[in-house]
Specification:
The structure is a single chain. The protein has one domain. Helix content is 64%, strand content 0%. It is built from 4 helices and no strands. The protein has helices at 19-33, 39-64, 76-97, 101-114. The longest helix has 26 residues, at 39-64.
Length: 121
Amino acid sequence: MTHQDTTGTAGTADPAPGLWPAVDELWSRLEATRAHPGPENLLLRILKLSEEVGEVAEAVIGATGQNPRKGITHTWDDVQSELCDVAITALVALRTLTPEAREVFERHLTRVRERPLKPPA
């Protein structure tokens, strides 16, 4: 078995080596077909994130049967898929904001990981 280097640009292990090329590919495809130029494009991508978060909520409600008129309409696999859509949409929105999306994200992730945990009250 050979060892593959999965070190990201910040020297951290990259859990998904194909993540950033995929984000760039999705961003390029969206850019090639965008209907709105300029800053409006970024705003619409950020609004799309809100739509995706709403779909997570809908899937959770459906997986738990919280709507008595509809009952159980979703599975926890649906919730997982919707959460993935949120993450992808957020990363593509970040890529729309800056071509340095990977570096910005990794710096922020490092700061979040270094935050001390508050002891329980």
